[in-house]
Amino acid sequence: KAGVTQTPRYLIKTRGQQVTLSCSPISGHRSVSWYQQTPGQGLQFLFEYFSETQRNKGNFPGRFSGRQFSNSRSEMNVSTLELGDSALYLCASSPGMIQVNNSPLHFGNGTRLTVT
Amino acid sequence: GESVGLHLPTLSVQEGDNSIINCAYSNSASDYFIWYKQESGKGPQFIIDIRSNMDKRQGQRVTVLLNKTVKHLSLQIAATQPGDSAVYFCAENTEYGNKLVFGAGTILRVKS
User: Fold this and answer.
1) Is there a contact between B31 and B95 (Cβ–Cβ < 8 Å)?
2) Each residue of A43-64: pLDDT tens digit?
3) Given pLDDT bands bounded at 50, 70 and 90, which one contains residue B95?
């Protein structure tokens, strides 16, 4: 079974631009979560989608948004990029509720975003 | 943000020794805990998990201990190998859903 796939692997953007990152979950997984990882703040939860609906959201500004498609693939968008948005963005998938399904989150290798 | 990640402690061990990585979690209501391993250039990889109704769980070469009284989690790695060198994160699940709150992480360095 293929793992969680994130594209692109690397991105360089200029302050003020917007960016879209893509995530394909493991086949059969309906829950997709997004995390931001930085050296200063560590791993922080952005949001989670399940069956095309946002189920939970972290403490990030409205510039960060996401969506999920009917095939469970997900995208996240960051508008009006700031230097501080430079980070590794990680996507994780799970069949459903991790405690109910007894299945932890499986992470992709991330998209490294650099804002200049 | 909710994850504290300013300074990563480092644990250096000799190959073949046992390693113990510690984690203090934040929410006494958390009822599910996971350890992840992250190698350079990769995403976090699941190692082992434990529910709050247990205090110990064993996997292959790894053991997780949970002390709810002091909100402490530990990961024990037996016979540590060079391939175990990575950053290790504990994570807690505090809500109905899949949101994880991660600890700061610990760097494990294995000396040959």
Assistant:
1) no
2) 999 999 999 999 999 999 999 9
3) low
For residues B29 and A69, the answer to whether their CB atoms sit within 8 Å is no
Residues above pLDDT 70, as percent of chain B: 94
Encoded tokens for B56: 């110990």
Task: Quickly list DSSP for chain B.
Answer: -----S---EEEEETTS-EEEEEE-S-TT--EEEEEEE-TTS--EEEEEEETT-SEEE-SSEEEEEETTTTEEEEEESS--GGG-EEEEEEEE-SSSS-EEE---EEEEEE-
CA distance A28 to A8: 22
> What is the CB-side half-sphere exposure of residue B100 using CA atoms within 13 A?
34
Residues B59/B78, Cβ–Cβ less than 8 Å: no
Give B-chain residues touching A90 at CB under 8 angstroms: 43-44
**C-beta atoms of B101 and A40 within 8 A:** no
Is the pLDDT reported for residue B48 higher than 80?
yes
- Give the CA count within 13 Å in the CB-facing half-sphere of A24: 8
pLDDT of residue B1: 37
The answer to whether A101 faces chain B, any CB pair under 8 Å, is: no
List chain A residues with CB under 8 Å of B93. 98-99
